[in-house]
Write a structure and sequence with these properties.
The protein is an alpha/beta fold and 277 residues long. Strands 2-1-3-4-5-6-7 form a seven-stranded mixed sheet, sandwiched between helices. The protein is globular and about 55 Å long. GO terms for molecular function: oxidoreductase activity, acting on the CH-OH group of donors, NAD or NADP as acceptor.
């Protein structure tokens, strides 16, 4: 069972999340090293965190290159989104657990830990306890090898695409609806606590009528595909769903980091947990 309070750590990857997580571990004065390329290593680490693009073979490449650097009591954590943990585990020999953070890692308590039946007993529980006690995260555990965060965000994005594609709302209107409604209660209640607050009967009635009308599309709209193919990939290209100017990306990265710290303070202030009914 993994239960080391001060493990030797390695963060691997070239993403913003990888860099930010490494910075957080350094700020906490933990024993951590960083690599941005999948190369064999001579040292041994108790926990290796790998952050890659959402591509199965890339994840397997990183895991296979780093598996010899795992200590006898250690394992590898890899980010899981569209690619399921079971798919990764079927192609590698190392013990792999799914772990997701959100940006900025240093300002957010979010941590999703994903397991399957293949994982060794105690590894996930030990990681969960270590993250709460040492990283001050608010982790949750997902079984079955999928990312709950990815599924919920994908469902919301699919419906947003559908509403714009069918002409019910503009991109800006969708953002206003999310920001000015759910944006006010989700940070401190989540989904289910808010249902209890507002009354579950209303949700039972509304969802019964609304569910058949929701999108079940398996593809993104053509206009979105064309936008991406034309190089309009967001703030980095100065154009995406909105138009931007030079310096906007850096400005918004600064804003997001500051806002995340402020909203986390409010979440902690008003946080209330109950036993499930």
């Amino acid at each position: 069972m993994y239960n080391d309070e001060n493990p030797r750590l390695l963060v691997a990857g070239s993403s913003v999340i990888a860099r930010d997580f490494y910075d957080e571990l350094r700020q906490d004065q933990l024993d951590v090293e960083f690599v941005d390329a999948p190369l064999p290593l001579d040292s041994a680490y108790d926990l290796i965190f790998v952050f890659t693009e959402d591509e199965l073979m890339e994840k397997c490449l990183w895991v296979n290159k780093l598996e010899d650097a795992v200590s006898a009591k250690g394992f590898i954590c890899v980010n899981v989104d569209g690619v399921g943990l079971s798919e990764i585990q079927e192609k590698v020999n190392a013990e792999v657990v799914g772990v997701n953070f959100c940006y900025p890692v240093t300002a957010s308590p979010f941590m999703e830990i994903i397991e399957t039946e293949r994982n060794q007993a105690g590894h996930v529980e030990g990681l969960f306890n270590w993250a709460k006690q040492r990283l001050n995260k608010d982790p949750y555990i997902v079984k079955g090898g999928i990312s709950v965060r990815a599924y919920m965000l994908a469902a919301m994005a699919r419906e947003a695409f559908y509403l714009v594609d069918k002409g019910y709302a503009s991109v800006e209107s969708i953002d206003r609806a999310c920001r000015n409604d759910a944006g006010y209660y989700l940070p401190f209640t989540g989904n289910y606590l808010y249902m209890d607050l507002m009354g579950t009967v209303a949700y039972a009635l509304v969802m019964k009528d609304l569910n058949p009308e929701l999108s079940n599309s398996q593809d993104v709209p053509d206009w979105f595909e064309r936008m991406v193919q034309n190089g309009k990939i967001g703030m980095k290209s100065l154009s995406g769903l909105y138009k931007y100017k030079e310096g906007d990306l850096e400005k918004w990265e600064f804003i997001v980091r500051g806002f995340s710290k402020e909203i986390n303070t409010l979440i902690i202030k008003y946080k209330k947990e109950y036993a499930e009914g």
